[in-house]
Write a structure and sequence with these properties.
The chain is α+β, with helices and mostly antiparallel strands. The chain is built from nine helices and nine strands. It folds into two domains: 159 residues, Trna Endonuclease, Chain: A, domain 1 (3-Layer(aba) Sandwich); 40 residues, no CATH class.
């Protein structure tokens, strides 16, 4: 959707632009992280050590004291989601490192809540294959896109957020809560339901039905 500036009684299209480097986007978000995501900044450019040899763009803490990872791209790229999954795995294995970073960046009185870890990806757009991949992989990843305009206006839009708790296991229908509830309901119906004689015979063979005539 194009953006227009109202000049008198006329609508003048506002031209889109982009950041020169990703760091400009990162700095803008980090300086306004409370207004955009209701988070507190923990640290920026956090190294993941020699073994992982990575650097997380932004570490933050949500309003509920949950860990938040934010990664940025100024162009459409599948690498963004791959990096985010990598860092999501890393932070679960390095909870102590994150808590130390929180103590240094925010204070010793903060207690980190590990019941939920958010990963936020920010890019101008996403490929349909990436959107589908995030939906089926089950990781707690939020996809946000931005538009920046030459009149110093920026727009953020959430395009995907996982609506169920993340799981590291392959989906097993037998353990799916919806399927389990349906199975219990069906079992209860079978145990307590009442049926007519004809309903009991429904689907039985002709031979069985003929035998009931002699009862």
């Amino acid at each position: 959707m194009p953006l227009f500036e109202i000049v008198g009684h006329n609508m003048v299209p506002v031209e889109q632009t982009n950041f020169n480097v990703e760091k400009e986007l990162q700095n803008l978000v980090e300086k306004n992280i409370k207004a955009i995501f209701n988070c507190r900044l923990v640290t920026s450019e956090f190294p993941t050590g020699a073994q992982h040899a990575g650097r997380i763009d932004t570490l933050a803490l949500s309003e509920d004291n949950n860990p938040v990872i934010i990664e940025y791209k100024k162009v459409e790229s599948s690498e963004l989601i791959n990096q985010s999954l990598f860092y999501l795995s890393w932070i679960h294995d390095h909870m102590g490192d994150f808590e130390i970073a929180v103590q240094k960046g925010i204070g010793h009185s903060v207690k980190v809540d590990w019941s939920d870890v958010r990963v936020i990806c920010i890019a101008p757009n996403y490929k349909k294959y990436d959107l589908h991949a995030v939906q089926v992989m089950g990781a707690n990843i939020e996809l946000w896109k931005y538009r920046i305009f030459k009149n110093s206006t920026i727009y953020f839009e959430e395009v995907f957020k996982q609506s169920y708790p993340p799981s590291t296991n392959t989906i097993d229908p037998s353990k799916n809560p919806v399927m389990v509830a349906a199975g219990k309901k069906a079992a209860q119906t079978r145990a307590t339901g009442s049926y007519t004689f004809e309903q009991h015979l429904a689907g039985k063979s002709k031979k069985v039905r003929e035998l009931t005539l002699h009862l």
